[in-house]
Fold these 2 entries.
Entry 1:
Amino acid sequence: MADHAHKLEILRGLIKFKSNTQKIWGVLVLLSIITGVEVVLGIYKPAALMGPVLGMKALNWIFIILTLVKAYYITWDFMHMRDETKSLRRVVVWTAVFLICYLLFILLQEGGYVFDVYKEGYMKRDF
Amino acid sequence: MDNTVVSTGTDEKTWGGGNQPLKSSYGKMMMWFFIVSDALTFSGFLAAYGFSRFKFIDSWPIADEVFTHIPFVHGNYPMIYVAFMTFILIMSSVTMVLAVDAGHELKKTKVTWYLFLTIIGGVIFVGSQAWEWGTFIKGDYGAVQTTGGNILQFVNADDGHRIAIRDFAVVDEHNERVVHESKKGLWFQSEGALPSYSVAEVISGMEEHDNVVIRTQIINEEGEKTVLSRGASLKLIRDNGKVVVEGANLHVNEYGSPLFADFFFFITGFHGFHVFSGVLINIIIFFNVILGTYDRRKNYEMVEKVGLYWHFVDLVWVFVFTFFYLV
C-alpha cells in the first residue's frame, strides 16, 4: 500500500485514465454498457442469433462471452488484480480457470449423455 | 511496505514473519485463496445446474416466462427487475472500490461515506432477492402436475397468452375434501395445505371454457413450449392430471421441472447468504472506520480485504445472472 502505483489503462492501453478514481468510473460505464446489451438482447432475442453454433444458440455464446468480459474487469480493476504481481495473478486465476473448465466439461458432457439415454430409451418420470 | 502492525524485527529473515511473498500481505493473500475456494464451490453448484439442464434440455423452464414481475407494477416485464438488481450490486462494488481508494489516501470521511453507500446497496440487493423469492414461491398462473411428474400449464387458444387456473376453474360447492390433520385421523399422518382447486374443478372449468388448452413442458423447434390441441388437452388432463400446483417449493414447481426451483433456491440462496454476511462484515468495518481504528493504524488494508470479498460476491452474481436469467 505504500506505493500507490495503479496501472491506469484498460483495453490494452486504448483508454488511459488520469487517476484511479476516474478509472473506476470508466470501468463502471463499461460494465453498465455490457449489462445493458445483455438485457436488450435477452428481451428482444433477435432471430438472427438463434441459430446453433457449437451445440448452443449463438445468443447464449454471446451472453457467456460478455459475462467473462465483465468478470475480467471486476477482477482486474475492482479487485486490483491488475496491480498484483504476475505470480499472484497466476496462482489465483490459472488454478480457478483450469479447475472450473475441467468441472464444466465433465458435468455438461455427462448431462448431454444422460439426455440422450432418456431420449433413446424410455423416460416417464421427470425427477 | 509497512503493512504489519506489530514489527517483529526479523523482517530481513525469510521465515521471520515480516516477509511478504508475492508482494502481498498475509491477510490479502489468504483472502484471495479463500475466494478461489469459494469460487470453486459456486462453480460446483452452477455446473450441477448445467448438468441438470443438459439432462432435461428439451423441457427446461424458460427463465423469461418465470421472472416477469416488478414490485408495485402489474404486467409482463421479463428481466427488468433482475437487471436492476445487477446494476445495484455493480454500483455497490464501485462505491467499495472508491472506499478502498480513499483508504489509500487515508481520507477517513470519504471512506465512511463510500462504505455507507456500499452497505445501502447490499441491503437493497438482499431485499430485492427476498421479494423475488416471495414472488416465485407464491406463483402466478397455477398448473396441474401429471402422475408422471410433468407440469401442464394453461393458455388461451385464441391469443396464446397464459390463463390462471383461478380465472377458469369451476368451483364445486359440494367438494368435501379438507386438510387432513393428525388430530382427525391417524395420529402419525398429516398433510400440508391443500391447493385452492382440485383437478376435477380444473377439468370442469376446461369443459366450460372452450378456449382453454394445455401447454406442455416440451420445447419445440421454435424454442417455445408445445401447445396441444383442444381434444388432446382434455384427454391428457383427464387421463393424467393428478394435483394442482400453485407456486414453487422444493417438491413441486408450477413453472416446470422441480429441479429448476431446487437449484433456484439453493444457488440464489447461497449467493444471498454471501451478500448478507458481506453486509454484516461491511457494517463491522464501517464502525471500525468511524471509531478511527484504521486511522490510528495509518493503514486501511482491512477495508481492501473486505472489499475483495464484496467484489467476489458481485462477480458470482454476474455468473448467476447469466446462467439463471439469460442463457
Entry 2:
Amino acid sequence: MSHVDLATLVTIAGMTLISVLTRSFFFLSNKAWELPAWVTSGLKYAPIAALAAVVVPEIVTNGGQLIATWKDARLFAAAVALAWYFWRRGLLGTILAGMAVYLPLRLGLGW
Amino acid sequence: MRHREFTVGMREMAALGPGIAAWGVMTGVAMVNSGLDFVSVLVMSVFVFAGSSQLAALPLFAAAAPTWVILATALCVNLRFVVFSLHLRPYVMHLPLPTRLLKGYLFADLSYVLFTRRFPRPAHDAPGKAAQDAYWTGSGVASWLIWAISSLIGVAMAASVPIAWGLGFAGTLALLGITCSLATSRLRTVSAGIAGAAAVAAYALPLKLNILVAIAAAVAFGLLLEATGAKASRDRATAPVGDRE
C-alpha cells in the first residue's frame, strides 16, 4: 500500500475510457448504414463463439498447453456441470454442481 | 416507471451471479497482490469494468510500463467488444449518443450473450424497443453491481483467499452453462466447437487475440456451412423452439 500515484489513476481513467469506446465503437456514428445481409447472418455465431473461445482453453489447457493428465479437477467438474445443465437447465445449479466436484478434487486430492 | 423487462434482465444476470462474483473476487485478490496502491485498486475495481483487461494490465503496472503500453494492451484485449458493438448497433441507434455510450459501458460479454439470446432481432416498433432498452439496462446494471461489489469483497479478503483455490473456475462454469443454452442449432454447436478448437490452437497469440481468431473462424465456418448444403440441419434448427433467426 504505497502512496497514491496520480499517473496510475490517469492510466485507470484511460482504461475506463477504452472500456466505453470499444464497447460503443459502432454506436458512435449517427450515419445511417445497413450491414450486408451475410454479416448479419454470420454475427449470430459470434456470441457462442466468443464464449466457447473463453471457456474451452480454461478447461483443457494450462497456460495454453493442452493438459496431459485426466487427473484434473476441471475435467470432472465440467462434465458434471454439463450433465447437470442438460438434466435441469438451471445455471445456478450448473455452477454449484460443478464447484461441488471441483473444490474437493482440487483441495482434497490436489488435482 | 420501471419496465417489466428491466427486472427480467436483472434476474437473468443475477442467475449468473455466483460465477461473475467468483471472478470479481479473484480479480480483487489479484489486484491487491499486484502491489498497486489501495486507492488505485478501489478506483479500478469500481470503474474499469473489464476483468480481462484489468488482469492483463496488472503485470504491466507492476513493471512500471509506460501508460500507452498499458492502454494499448487494454485496447487489444477489448477488441472483441468492437465486434459485439457491430452486432448490437441496430438495437441502440434510436437512442441519443450519451445514452448509447452509457449502454456501451454497461454491456460486457455476458450481457451481450444474454441480450442477443433474448432478442435475436432488433425491434422495429416502440414497445419492442422499450422492452429491449429496459432489458439491456437491467442486465447491465446487475452485472456492474455484482462485478464491483465482488471485486471490493476480493480486495477486502485478499489476505485470506489464496489464488490456489481456483474460485475463478466458477466463472468458467457459468460461461459453460450459457454456452450450452446458446447451442440451439446444429450449426451453432459446430461453430462453438470450431471456436473452442481455434482458441486453443491460437492460444500463443498475445493479448487474448486468440478469442478474435476464434470468433472469425466460427463465423466463417458457420457461413460456409450454411452456404454449402447444410440445408438439412438448418431445417432441423428452425423447427424446434429455440432458434428464431
